Amino acid sequence: MFLYLFYLPTVDWNALLNLRISQAFAGVSLWYLLAVILTIIAFLASAYFLAKKSFSNQDRSPDPQDVRFQNVVLIIKVPKENEKEALAAEHMFASLHGILRATPDIQEHLSFEISSDEGGVAFHVAVPRHLQSFVEGQIYAQYPQAEVVDEGDYAEKVTTLENLSVTACQVVLSKQDFFPLKTFREFEVDPLSSITSSISNLRPGEKVWLQLLIRPVPDVWQESGHKYVELVRYGKPVTGRANFFGLFAGLQGLAKEFLEELLNVVAEIPKSFLGGADSAYRSSPPPKSSTLEDRPLKLSTGQEDMLESIEIKLSKMGFESMIRIFVISASSDFANGRLQSLVSSLGQFSGSVINSFVKKPMSDDPQQWLEDYRARLFPSYGGYILNTDELASIFHLPSISVETPAITWSRYRRGEPPLSLPIENCTYIGKTTFRNNLVKFGIRNDNDDRAKHMYLIGKTGTGKSTIFKNMILQDIQNNHGVGVMDPHGELIDQVLDMIPDSRVDDVVLFDPSDFSFPPALNMLELKSPEQKNLMASGLVAAFKARFDYSWGPRLEYLLNNAILTLLEVPGTTLLGITRLLTDMNYQKYILYQVKDQVMREFWDKEFKEMRGNQRLITEAIAPIQNKVGRFLSSSTIRNILGQPHSTIKFDEIMDTGKILLINLPVGKIGDDNASLLGSLIVSRLQFMAMQRINIPEEQRRPFYFYADEFQNFASGTFASILSEARKFKLCLHMTHQYTAQLSEEMVDAVFGNVGTIVSFSLGGPDAKIMASELTPVFDENDLISLEKYNMYVKLMIDGMASLPFSAVSLEPPDKKFYTGNREKVVDASRRKYGSDTAVVEDRISRWTSREFNLGMAVAEAKRRGDYVPPSDDLLDERESEPVPRKWQRPLNNVNKSFTPMRTGYKKF
């Protein structure tokens, strides 16, 4: 106390008298009043002085056992093309200074870390959970393409240190902390390269960790630096540590410092009451000592540079910091070598006249080292001040200029979803992944977005069928009309397992592999003759898509005319195509019923000329026999397509909202059969959808059709559906694996008409094609590197395609949705739409063995009441065979006035 009184004569008592306290204490001795005031001021100054000392030196870290402050360890990844360098990290640290608390009792700290093992080099941040969102936001602000993920604490994976060599150290400053380190602004090459190179290429089991602990400090830490600069600039001796937060410089310095604090308290007390809790920590200009000369000395260039570098450091915000290094290896030599290598890499920030890093050994307790590292424990004796530039120089995320191998890069970019992302009243397809904000989204059901179709592409096993399963389940539960075509059978089986009780009777199962109960599907069945050209075009396109490798114009012409001819006659099936070309009696039977003169002339003239040239007719007919005949020779296909009356009616299925399940297992019915049958079904489906033209648009019920591996059924019909089916409310959802499976025409049709595009992981050629659809957000490398179930989505929203964004598919439907109704559904569908195989085969066998001829056609016309005399071309004796006697008698009474000419039917 006597030492403090030594400085009392230097106090400006006039300033104290300006408080006019005497007016409030009239009659009280002035010296007594001053003594009381000095006592109060001394007490306050002592408390304030000790608080500031304590603020610097005491352990202000939260208790690691306190659940409120427990850390979450995040891994940070950026794309390899990242161009953000250390300056971005400097801005990030400046923003993170915002976690500074107004009261100095507890201050959270962060830990920025670099870990390396045999898997590569990774970057992490450990942050109290309640600050996670804030810290992530600051990272994203500077690194928009960063991926910040909670993958657990890598340090927790080390379960034991037995039989391992462990070494560790702390890295501290060699001088007072207002002396700066060399920063990234002074490097031509990214300093991170040296750090990562020193810890790369580790052997299995070896680990090297660097931990940078930081916590913000108020802007009072610069005071000691400003004092030092002023003392040097004015030529005054600098004794002891000039750092205000350092050790005492001696009793005299302590007394002088105390007196200065006492006078500062006088000024700070009103500010504390009026200016808020943090006013005491606001920075102030460098103190002006009344004992210094008014004119500074002329310093050398080196001295000026040193002082300027100090002032630059003092101009930035500061963090109390500590660096900890931990190395694990089976070899002590390697562990020590790696430790020294990493410490040496930090030497690049050192300078002769500035600060430098030095190694500080730790205690001989490896287990405690590990526990302290895991706890991200800040030393109780505090750390040293590094500013934002220095922190960014030591820790920043790697850029494209860092060529260290095995850095853990972000494999693919994540894109921001649109603001208008549908999250209600939609069929859900996934969750967004941008910045780990998982928002469930889908395609709206209350407008035409789904009617503009959906296209999914990706390698096998990436998640396409999972999206289909989720969407199909939702459509079924929402009582929508649903169709599913599956070339493998697995998807159909899973859908059958999820049919709810309320929709068992809605299921129409078309399964050619169910050989015991084949359904009936006559591709030539028409409701109106005006539809025949459209139907014929679709059927020919289906055959052409399957046999394109050996297709020719003559084959197409002949097949088209054969189909058009059969479409004129009710009850005909595809079985009649080859018979029409080879059986002249059957041909006359059919042509008698054909009213189209163009078709009649074709058969009477063109085809007759072909028949006159054996070589020509053989070349014309053989391809159709080889292709169509081979297809229909399969009993499985024949039993379905050879029945004259369809039990499965696509128009009724769509209009009533039923569930159509088309199972075409390649392994059971063959690849060729599955593909051609699927193409024919798609053609039929499109044909029936277009008949909705007679239904008012607002009454057309949407029908959602899912085609898995649709390249197996992709004919020209698919291209037509994509461009025209929207208005008829036939909504396609298509998947396949790679674009080479499609023709160029089909690829153009897909990208030209599909509204929603979803891409999973792709190979190089497909990535190049899809990148043009997903630019500018994603590129080829992103598409190649996508992980399983991750996808890029270009979503149709209110009739407009959104910018591409990243997402992850929903989990496969839970077992709780499995109803166990499969057998019930199969049995119900068999009863409604199937027939006993023996009965079907008997009918087809009788048709095959029956001898058709002109007389039969005439007799049938007579019974129907629409008899007309056969034309001359049909009665040409040279082209006819005798009519069986059993068909002659009914014709005797046909028309007495009819006298056949040039015919071999003598009794006609």
UniProtKB/TrEMBL annotation:
Coiled coil: none annotated. Keywords: Membrane, Transmembrane, Transmembrane helix. Residues 278-298, 868-894 are annotated as: Disordered. The keyword Transmembrane helix applies. The keyword Membrane applies. InterPro entries: DUF8128, P-loop_NTPase, T4SS_component, T4SS_TraD_DNA-bd. The chain crosses the membrane at residues 30-51. Residues 450-751 form the Type IV secretion system coupling protein TraD DNA-binding domain. It comes from the Bacteria. It holds the Pfam family DUF8128. Residues 79-225 form the DUF8128 domain. PANTHER family: AAA+ ATPASE DOMAIN-CONTAINING PROTEIN, UNCHARACTERIZED PROTEIN YJGR-RELATED. This is Uncharacterized protein. It comes from candidate division WWE3 bacterium CG08_land_8_20_14_0_20_43_13.
